[in-house]
Batch of 2 targets.
Target 1
Amino acid sequence: MAASPRAFILRHTRLRPVPGLEEIRLHLADEALPLWHAVQVETNDPDAPVPYWAFAWGGGLAIGRYLRDHPEAVAGRRVFDLGSGSGLCAIASMHAGASEATGADIDPFAAAAIGLNARANGHRVGVVRRDVLDDEPPDADIVLAGDCWYDLTLAERVLPWLVRVRDRGIDVLIGDPGRRYLPTAELVELASYEVRTTTELEDLELKRGAVYALRP
Ligand SMILES: C[S@@+](CC[C@H](N)C(=O)[O-])C[C@H]1O[C@@H](n2cnc3c(N)ncnc32)[C@H](O)[C@@H]1O
């Protein structure tokens, strides 16, 4: 990698308000495909993942809106944000009064983005830069999973892990805009919002993002 992930993010994004959550600002990119190509060149890895960290996704936006409406879900509590990407859900938690928040993501650029974005919003957010889905549930009061159901392999691992989290007595909130692998039969919808994502990989019109708990 030629430059640090932090320098790369600063070079390829702009700090700007999140649509529908204007109180939060993130380092966001304009277009995914040129940025993805830049990541591949930067890392010399043609299989580098999509730069999810440079966009606010429908699931995270729905969780952010829910936490603005229901700060009591996280206020004074320790939050763990699975598949954190930009850190959006962790940052929204801190805005809503969480005592601490940690974002977990496998992408090294996401780890850097979470730190940069947290600082830009005046918060500190811890970062776990590894795959936690084979780990024991985290030491947290609530786990958030924003937009984690877009890939079958990931979806098949996320649900059993979240069930273990829930069975450990930790609250679980899932945010999703209706992805193909969302296990709707296992979920109870709590709220839904019109959300506008920040990536042209989806249509940029309003779509519905919902927040769910796991069915007891
Ligand atoms: C669609 S993005 C959602 C980001 C953010 N939650 C939001 O809603 O804007 C999904 C994120 O999950 C991350 N991810 C994929 N597999 C993961 C795993 N096994 N553990 C942790 N994060 C993972 C990806 O790197 C990506 O940043």
Note: Residues 49, 52-53, 56-57, 59-60, 82-86, 88-89, 104-107, 110, 131-133, 146-148, 150, 154 surround S-adenosylmethionine (CB under 6 Å).
Target 2
Amino acid sequence: MKRKIILTKDGSTTIHLEDWNEQYHSTNGAIQEAMHVFIKTGLQHTKNTFNPDQIHILEIGFGTGLNAFVTYLEAKKHNFHINYHGVEAYPVASAEITQLNYTQELKAENERDTFEQMHACEWGKETILADNFKLTKRQQFFSEINDQEQFNLIYFDAFGARVQPELWSVEIFKKMYEALQKNGVLVTYAAKGSVRRAMQEVGFNVERLPGPPGKREMLRATKIN
Ligand SMILES: C[S@@+](CC[C@H](N)C(=O)[O-])C[C@H]1O[C@@H](n2cnc3c(N)ncnc32)[C@H](O)[C@@H]1O
């Protein structure tokens, strides 16, 4: 598939897939979307509401590493302890990684080495990036996920249902539900009715919340039992 690096409206980069006319992030702002959907509505909510000693995060679609990197920065700022698992079937090429401007746009140039290490570290192996941050990248298909009650928080960041409807299905959300501990939370940028209903069908309590810039709503799903 043809790929190119493009600028989004907040000045941060993303990857555009020409054949699908789809991006790795919102064209309204990649960093703004990551901060709103995953950090504010996911990570901060989990910390403020449940205050676990360690937050175990599962990311659906490690991609460019932007979500992992902003989570690392947030953890460093507040001394959160994070165990981060990023699942990805098609790792981004290093020639693309070098064209991403996240360290500059996040004013975190002093963390450039960490961002690079996130990509260079071995797949399938836990890497300690800081005293309070462990990263395990898992090269697998989402359909192969079989974790049981491991995670407090899931960043569900698959490509949209328009291009990959099979990833927004009851079958996948059942896997997500099983992977979460009690009171575990899943956040996603999507707000479609069919997605919300698939989440409810597997047992999630689903909230419709304000979305990031350019998007009216997003979803947050909680495992209550
Ligand atoms: C929207 S992008 C993820 C963006 C990422 N969170 C970031 O911050 O850059 C979706 C990701 O899912 C991956 N992907 C697509 N289909 C997949 C599948 N069936 N199993 C595992 N990964 C898949 C893609 O390669 C892509 O990296």
Note: The chain is about 30% helix and 30% strand.
